[in-house]
Amino acid sequence: MLRTTATLALLLLALPAAAQSVSGTVTKVDEPQGKLTINHGPIKNLDMDAMTMVFRAADPAMLKGLKAGTKVKFDADRVNGQITVTKLEKAK
To answer: Which key words are in the record (predicted)?
Structure first.
């Protein structure tokens, strides 16, 4: 039993941190490039402090209807070496 618990603990430590929704404000949308700039809070799964930065959109369709000043909640992760917004919704 102890061995199983230790193995499970090691597996959990080896898994990447799950993406958590982060609040932010869109400052720029570049639909032709599939990118958006967001002023955001800390992104724990990427070990990133609050800042304003450019993200690639995992799906360019998520950029439709966004403009500077739009409040959003989003998930971000590294996809093929690029920091990418993987989920996005307008904040309420």
So the answer is: Signal
CATH of residue 19's domain is: 2.40.50.320
Q: Is 82 helix (H, G, I), strand (E, B) or coil?
A: strand
DSSP 7-63: HHHHHHHHSPPPP--EEEEEEEEEGGGTEEEEEE--BGGGTB-SEEEEEEESSGGGG
Which residue range(s) make up the domain with 45? 2-90
Q: What is the pTM of this model?
A: 0.79
Q: How many domains does the chain contain in total?
A: 1
